[in-house]
Amino acid sequence: MENSMFCYQCEQTVGGKGCTKMGVCGKSPEIAALQDLLIYQLEGISCYAKYIIDKGEKVDVKFSKFIEDSLFTTLTNVNFDPDTHIKLLQKSQELKDELKSKAEELNFNCDREQVTYKLSDSKSKLLEDAKLARLDRDTDEDPDVRSLKHTILYGLKGISAYGHQARFLNYTSKEVDKFYFEALAAITNPELTLTEAIELMTKTGNMSLEVMKVLDDANTTSYKNPEPTKVNVNIKKGPFIIISGHDLKDLEMLLEQTKDKGVNVYTHGEMLPAHGYPELKKYPHLVGNFGSAWQNQQREFDDIPGCILMTTNCLMRPRESYKDRIYSTNVVGWEGVEHIKTLEDGTKDFSKIIQKAIELGGFKEDQEVKEIIVGFGHEATLKNADAIVNGVKNGAIKHFFVIGGCDGAKPGRNYYTEFAQKVPEDCIILTLACGKYRFNKLEFGDINGIPRLLDIGQCNDVYSATKIALSLSDVFKCDVNKLPLSIVLSWYEQKAVADLLALLALGIKGMILGPSLPAFITPNVLQYLIENYELRPISTAEEDLKDLLENTI
Ligand code: SF4
Ligand code: SF3
Q: Which parts of the sequence carry Cysteine persulfide (predicted)?
């Protein structure tokens, strides 16, 4: 292995094959090594935990929480700080030792390398040891089983991000907490068969749905169901903080702490749907949405007279022009960027960032207001169910397109703008996640009062999309695959993998995926997905539209 690292977990991986010298995302070989070793340790911990559970004993929830936080730390564009990784590695050994004693009391005997490995005590040795844990290490494993194992691992990373967000609001799933152990332990099994790996992939999809449901409960109970809401996408005069990522609780805490301080709060990226939640939109200083999707942040944050708070993915290398005004929280981190910790009581102290925003002075003038509408989660959309159903029955609505997923930097992503623009006027577009920035400021008009572009929410709101689709299939008394509905996905990082696996587990067929296919899917696994789910890569917007519309009732 002459390459200094190997990572192929996201869509922008070098040459569609793997990052081997340096991550396109900014991940260094050192971080890559520490992340590989961390995953390896999580696998070892999981072997112990699974054994203990199989013996009918309990495993404390702190182990699942640790796995969840660590997996999330290794998701694309989340954490680039070596110290954070080393601390997590040290903690992993402590937890592993704790489970080891308990498992041995129960006669555990296993010689898998992830189980027997003991963490070294110096950074240089850790980096050396990490070679054992590389995803491209030599094994005599069937490449298709390995491909499925990696798909499962990446699905788990997505699940961990959603689980982390829900847990912060005190919502958890025991099933998901246990599944981390089951899946990670299975990945260490050299004898896992193709059939078993496929079953585990489906179960990962089911667990992804489960965690998204729990997160939906957490968000809609804490902040009430989203409702259609206009959001200004231009700027207002005054000091400001831009909050990015997916974590609504961080936004709530920030809004509370900026109350009456003369500081405006803007959402950025995946935080946009927050404006639809009654318990968040009630704050008058939540003034609008700033910028666009994650890949434009370096340009959009350059030299702005305010602060930025990153709550989840996607963080890019901060430019010097704003490194002193960008802050991270939760598992997000970058060496030299100030991190805001969660205090013992679960709260956070945002006073530093607020103070800094006031010092920076903010925007000097208001821009003309330009509004878009968000807030079409399952409740709000299904409130219009009668109008939607009648529209379909009387021919006013021909087809629904879910155009959802991540945005990214590749020029090929113009496909999604083009696709949305070409969707005929008698069709409705449902959208979610940050890929929507490719078209959410365009005018789509309405069909008999129903907006033609319905923003369902964040990537985890794929759950909302499935709820809407399943309700429609109930009304029309047909299988969801027979609905006049097509799903056009864009992927970038591993939450999209979790979303895709959830949709496959529900038996949804005929989805199209782009801008390119995951590097970790082998030709045989792809063939399996084509044969069983009719999943296919995007071609041109024109051809795909024509093809999908033929499926109209
Ligand atoms: Fe490369 Fe993506 Fe891995 Fe970053 S996360 S190193 S860009 S494959
Ligand atoms: Fe976007 Fe990073 Fe995936 Fe949540 S924020 S969808 S890319």
A: 406
Encoding tokens for residue 320? 């010097």
- pLDDT average per 10 residues of sequence, the chain (553 residues): 87 97 98 98 98 98 98 98 98 98 97 98 97 95 98 98 98 98 98 98 98 98 98 98 98 98 98 98 98 98 97 97 98 97 96 98 98 98 95 96 97 96 98 98 97 98 97 94 96 98 97 97 98 97 95 52
DSSP H stretches of helix in 137-267 = 143-168, 174-187, 194-223, 248-258
Q: Which CATH class is domain 229-360?
A: alpha beta
What is the model's pLDDT at position 36?
98
Predicted local confidence at residue 552, as pLDDT: 52
> Phi and psi of 244, rounded to 5°?
-120, 165
The whole-angstrom separation of Cα 325 and Cα 342 is 19
Q: Which ligand is nearest to the CA of 12?
A: 1
Distance CA 221, CA 546 (A): 41
Q: Residues of 339-362 as b/e, b for ≥16 C-beta within 10 angstroms?
A: bbeeeeeeebebeebbebbbebeb
- CATH topology match: 14-221 vs 229-360: no
Of all protein residues, the one whose alpha carbon is nearest to atom 4 of ligand 2 is 459
Fold of 377-550: Rossmann fold (3.40.50)
pLDDT at 553 (0 to 100): 46
Q: Which residues are annotated as a binding site for hybrid [4Fe-2O-2S] cluster?
A: 246, 270, 314, 406, 434, 459, 493, 495
Is-contact 136 1, C-beta < 8 A?
yes
Encode pLDDT of 428-453 as tens digits: 999 999 999 999 999 999 999 999 99
Q: What is the pLDDT of residue 3?
A: 75
Q: And the tokens for 319?
A: 């430019």
**Domain positions in the chain:** 14-221, 229-360, 377-550
Give the integer Cα–Cα distance in Å for 32 and 4: 9
The values of phi and psi at residue 514, to 5°, are -155, -175
Tokens 């572009």 — which residue?
453
Q: What number does the ligand 2 atom closest to the CA of 408 have?
A: 7
Query: CA-to-CA distance for 326 and 338, rounded, in angstroms?
Result: 7
Which is the closest atom of ligand 1 to the Cα of 11?
Answer: 2
Pick the closest to residue 488 from 447, 543, 531, 525 (CA basis).
543
Around ligand 1, the residues with Cβ closer than 6 Å are: 7-10, 12-13, 19, 23-25, 27, 76
Specify the residue with its C-alpha closest to ligand 1, atom 2. 10
Q: What CATH number is given for 14-221 in this structure?
A: 1.20.1270.20
Residues listed for the chain: 553
Ligand 2 site, residue 266, Cβ cutoff 6 A: no
How many C-beta atoms lie closer than 10 Å to residue 206's C-beta? 16
Using a 6 Å cutoff on CB, does residue 491 contact ligand 2? Answer: no
